[in-house]
């Protein structure tokens, strides 16, 4: 069910000399999280493709370039192999061994990667064994014109910073998992519950709703679009129960009651959280709501400065719900547009809007920034679902995220 | 079924002194066309509201201001009545009797109308009895600052020019009939057939499709959205046949075959033609296709300059279909964006695009220009439906237009 089309996985090639620590880095990027690893078999000297989840980057294809990691210049065969890998690469990560530092191998590699106009993130590994001075790091960085970070794949130091750099360098057209297309089979019927309230744009639908319909059509499924008040009637009019019901988060309670228990139910927010954010990171954030205590600081962040309605969701509703949940006062701060405040560590929780005005990379960058500061982050839709006690049901199409919630 | 919500009817108040010919003008505006007249009863001295169709303006509410047409200044009672009428007016038409010309009555009236920021079209009537010189017309026009046209309600001279002026002066927010909302009752299911081809925008739906879904939701109906290939399956999955099937014009043949004979079928083009154009005028244009003869000149007009696909519909497909239909060569000319060529009379037919980039007023202005030149005009969708022999079926939701086609 969570099969991600190859096209929407960010393809990350890990380059480096044999002793630089490529494998440890791959483990560090994935091992502290739940990693779904499926190796594509190959000979020991062929590059290995591994489908993985990296939080908060989402589904990726890691290309382990064993076999083109000889120290020294790149021979004819190895150049050809490197080129084959680069043909499939969206982003290159170059792992550098600190004792030898930048050698001819790295310089040749950077040339080959730059020739394809591909982004490169560089790491000096093994900071636990040999600490590199900031001056040395800067000098190497200038020498090969590649951003460099000191990390330790062994201790995990710098890994979150690297993820943030990778997100920043990812290509513009990087799309991530589909909205809904991978959740349906041809001929499936999906019911979309679209309330028409004051926030709905005049004569239109909001973009995620349109994109969901389109994604269903692209995948040979049928979309039944209905307001919450007509949902029961629409379900009764179908000979078979639908494969899935997707609702606007704000109608979750009513829609949950009107949808038969056997039918999978989720929300546009959750689809969007996966499509342009990282569902697992946000579910971890939702769990953190239960650990809030009176007096804690909460940051409410919105991606754009929209016209506020009376009883605005970010300004009024969410603070009210959180106070009720914690049974006491909380200290709220708000930020909108632009970026996060410089010091996130003082917050116990970040609540982010759905990010409809942010692209995937911007959203992931924010998630990565929160992770790096060690602050859980949740979005509006998941928060609402969690506080209404329906998040578990709404995650049914996403077993991995559901597992994180219950563990 | 063709009940037009009051809000979408253009409310046109006809003012003028008692002998100016208000009633004849109302007859002239509507009588050469099929007029659906339903008088709202009132005393003889009260304004009368008449729901009518004026081609190509569409459904209008004519306000006949009998009772406030005394010659002389506007007395207290009459001012109040005038104000009551103006509260409901979108556009004022002032009928002037040529012998007396512009009097205090007209000047007071213009003042009252201008105070409400309402547009005024002025006509000097009875040009068949007393011809007014262009100089005199211009002088009066300047005197009261109102555009004036010389007409004869009796002979019909100038009536089409007046319609064009009325369209030009109509308010910006004039919307016309809904896309689909008046064709459904609460709880109805409507199947929308949305093919996904190269012309579909990436990850989205085209605007008329989104607007149709929204209009259905606004009217408590349920939209089943499906590609043409899944239509049969979707219909089979419904316990009751849908109230209506709406398809993209280009899939009319396949969709017509897959839709049970008892189910009403129409196209987005036809919905759009009514919503932002005038369905009856365009159906008259469709009929004219059958009168084309080899050697005739045909103008193909597009509202915008879009990126042309291979086998472009306006450049390639429609000329090919028309040639096949007429059984010989035709002389085509093309125009896009901007306006029509100055001399339309040389064309036997104008074929216009759906006008998705034009608003209702712009589209109607083009229809009125064609009518004034006496040239039939049809749009892409209606032409396709007619040439495929399915226009009659596709007009089932619109009995008036269907009548025009068969008469």
Mind explaining what this structure looks like?
The structure is a homodimer of 407-residue chains. By secondary structure, chain A is α/β, with parallel strands linked by helices. Chain A has three domains: 6-169, Rossmann fold, CATH 3.40.50; 181-271, Rossmann fold; 277-403, Rossmann fold (3-Layer(aba) Sandwich). Chain A contains 15 helices and 15 strands. The A-B interface holds A 186-187, 189, 194, 196, 200, 203-205, 207, 210-211, 213-218, 220-227, 229-230, 233-234, 236-240 and B 186-187, 189, 194, 196, 200, 203-205, 207, 210-211, 213-218, 220-227, 229-230, 233-234, 236-240. Chains A, B: Residues 281-397 form the Hydrogen maturase F tetramerization domain. Chains A, B: This is Iron-only hydrogenase maturation protein HydF.
Query: What share of residues of chain A is helical?
Result: 25-40%
Task: Calculate Rg of chain A over CA atoms.
Answer: 23 Å
List unreliable stretches of 5+ residues of chain A.
1-6, 32-44
- Most residues in contact, chain pair and counts: A-B, 35 and 35 residues
Helical element count of chain A? 15
- From the N-terminal CA to the C-terminal CA of chain A, the straight-line distance is 20 Å
Please give the CATH class of the largest domain in chain A: Alpha Beta
Count of separate structural domains of chain A = 3
Could you tell me the strand content of chain A as a percent range? Answer: 15-25%
Structural class of chain A: alpha/beta
For the record, the CATH architecture of the largest domain in chain A stands as: 3-Layer(aba) Sandwich
Overall pLDDT score of chain A: 86
Give the overall shape of chain A, derived from the CA principal axes: globular
Count of distinct strands of chain A: 15
- H/E order of the elements of chain A? EHEEEHEHEHEHEHEHEHEHHEHEEHEHHH
Oligomerization state of this entry?
homodimer
* CATH topology annotation of the largest domain in chain A: Rossmann fold
CATH homologous superfamily title of the largest domain in chain A: P-loop containing nucleotide triphosphate hydrolases
Biggest sheet features of chain A:
7 strands, mixed
Q: What is the topology, as strand order, of the major beta sheet of chain A? A: 2-3-4-1-5-6-7
């Amino acid at each position: 069910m969570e099969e991600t089309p190859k096209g929407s996985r960010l393809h990350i090639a890990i380059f480096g000399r044999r002793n630089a620590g490529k494998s440890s880095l791959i483990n560090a990027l994935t091992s502290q999280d739940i990693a779904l690893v499926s190796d594509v078999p190959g000979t020991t000297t062929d590059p290995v493709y591994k489908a993985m989840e990296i939080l908060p980057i989402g589904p990726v294809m890691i290309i382990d370039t064993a076999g083109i990691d000889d120290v020294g210049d790149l021979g004819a065969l190895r150049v050809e192999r490197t080129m084959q890998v680069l043909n499939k690469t969206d982003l290159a990560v170059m792992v550098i061994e600190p004792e030898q530092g930048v050698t001819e191998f790295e310089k040749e590699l950077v040339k080959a990667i730059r020739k394809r106009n591909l982004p490169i993130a560089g790491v000096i590994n093994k900071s636990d064994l040999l600490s590199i001075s900031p001056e040395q790091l800067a000098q190497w960085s200038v020498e090969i014109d590649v951003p460099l970070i000191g990390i330790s794949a062994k201790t995990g130091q710098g890994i979150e910073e690297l993820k943030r750099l990778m997100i920043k360098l990812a290509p513009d057209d990087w799309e991530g998992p589909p909205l809904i297309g991978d959740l349906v089979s041809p001929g499936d019927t999906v019911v979309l519950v679209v309330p028409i309230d004051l926030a709905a744009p005049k004569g239109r639908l909001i973009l995620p709703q349109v994109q969901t319909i389109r994604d269903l059509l692209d995948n040979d499924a049928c979309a039944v679009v209905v307001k919450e008040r007509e949902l029961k009637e629409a379900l009764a009019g179908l000979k078979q129960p639908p494969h899935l019901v997707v609702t606007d988060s704000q109608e979750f309670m009513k829609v949950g009651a009107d949808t038969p228990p056997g039918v999978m139910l989720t929300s546009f927010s959750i689809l969007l959280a996966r499509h342009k954010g990282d569902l697992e990171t946000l579910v971890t954030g939702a769990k953190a709501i239960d650990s809030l205590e009176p007096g804690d600081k909460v940051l409410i962040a919105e991606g754009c400065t929209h016209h506020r309605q009376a009883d605005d969701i970010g300004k009024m509703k969410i603070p009210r719900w959180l106070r009720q949940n914690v049974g006491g006062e909380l200290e709220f701060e708000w930020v909108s547009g632009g970026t996060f405040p410089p010091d996130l560590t003082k917050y116990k929780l970040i609540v982010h809007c759905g990010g409809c005005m942010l692209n995937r990379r911007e959203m992931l960058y924010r998630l990565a920034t929160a992770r790096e500061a060690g602050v859980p982050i949740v979005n509006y839709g998941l928060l609402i679902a969690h506080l209404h006690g329906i998040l578990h049901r709404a995650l049914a199409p996403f077993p991995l995220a559901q597992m994180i919630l219950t563990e």
